[in-house]
Amino acid sequence: MTDRTSRAGWRGSVTLLLASSTGGVGQHVRSVAAGLTTAGVAVRVCGPTETQEQFDFTGAGARFQPVAIPASPTPADARAVATIRRALAADPVDVLHAHGLRAGLVAVLARPAVPLVVTWHNAVLAGGLRGSVSRLLERVVARGARLTLGASADLVERAAALGAPDARLAPVAAPVLPAPHRRREAVRAEFGVDRDQPLVVSVGRLHPQKRYDVLVDAAARWRTRTPAPVVVIAGSGPAYLPLAARISAARAPVTLLGHRTDVADLLAGADLAVVTSDWEARQLFAQEAMRAGVPLVATRVGGLPELVGDAAALVPPSDIDALDDAVRGLLDDAARRAELGRRGAARAATWPTEADTLAQLTALYAELAPDAAGPTAPDADAPSTGRR
């Protein structure tokens, strides 16, 4: 049996820890939990009760234990730290894997006796006092984890610069969407889109980082096009009311759909997908759109250029004119849209899959906890499991 094979057969135990999440982090943790339990790993997920309600970790085969970790640090973090300590003492595991800086901070403060892995999913973008505090917490988390995984190369470089003893790239694969349940015509009819009218779709949490204000302002300019495109944004979050007010004031042809579980259907009806974020690692909707062959306009930030290559139209962040020009150019050129859709699907076929992500994680767990059931200690000459 090769070392690679023995690592793939790791049968230890892991606790996955996450803070409040309504989007990509929760989806990723559920995907990992499902894959690990199917492979025979004992998995416990710890996080806020609402994450279990939304992502159904127990339905993926994992045990769930409530741990209240809100989106921002509070004195209540002390209770979360105590809960994790008690959980690890009562039911020891081989590896503790925290997802995101908030969960990572709680895990570091709990000082687990087992190896701690922290995956960084997002960059710190806040300024002022909040930004200063967040960057201090970044340093604490980077130095306190045995292994830091970054969802994009810039996060890996950031963690290493802050003193992480071992920082590696671990791309997060978007779960494969199910086949659409509705035909293209039915999806478009829901939003009153005529046959020759473009449908522009964006999906993501309604949060300032996503910069949907830029999309709304650009869409207001498209109102005078013939035919005017219909723009829909699927997602929920704290920016809903400001965005709704902005849409009304600008008379922009934009509809906020709220949380949707039919992203595959939305993409089946779409002519164009748009991502306007100030920063992303490997944004899940960007992956979903390109896999579906829907042409994508996205911002040139974070890990997006590395993700999409030349298979999407990239624009600077916060640049309404550039977004306007890129969208108009694609809406006016059906052949270019089709070509970009084909290139996107081809590019997506080269990305790591959920199975690849799972294989990387089990190999890392085996490397960190070699005495757990299943693996053997790695040879000194074994190939690296990720970028250092």
Secondary-structure blueprint of this entry?
Blueprint: H1 3-8, E1 13-18, H2 24-38, E2 42-47, H3 49-55, E3 63-66, H4 77-90, E4 95-99, H5 101-110, E5 116-120, H6 128-144, E6 147-150, H7 153-161, E7 167-169, H8 184-190, E8 199-203, H9 212-221, E9 230-234, H10 240-250, E10 254-258, H11 263-269, E11 272-275, H12 284-291, E12 296-299, H13 304-308, E13 313-315, H14 320-331, H15 334-348, H16 354-368
Parallel strand pairs: 1-2, 1-4, 2-3, 4-5, 5-6, 6-7, 8-9, 8-11, 9-10, 11-12, 12-13
Helix pairs in contact: 2-16, 4-5, 5-6, 8-11, 9-10, 9-14, 12-15
Share of β-strand residues: 15-25%
Largest sheet: 7 strands, parallel
| Topology-level CATH name of the largest domain | Rossmann fold
Order of helices and strands: HEHEHEHEHEHEHEHEHEHEHEHEHEHHH
Give the helix/strand class. Answer: alpha/beta
Shape: globular
Mean model confidence by pLDDT: 91
Number of helical segments? 16
Number of domains: 2
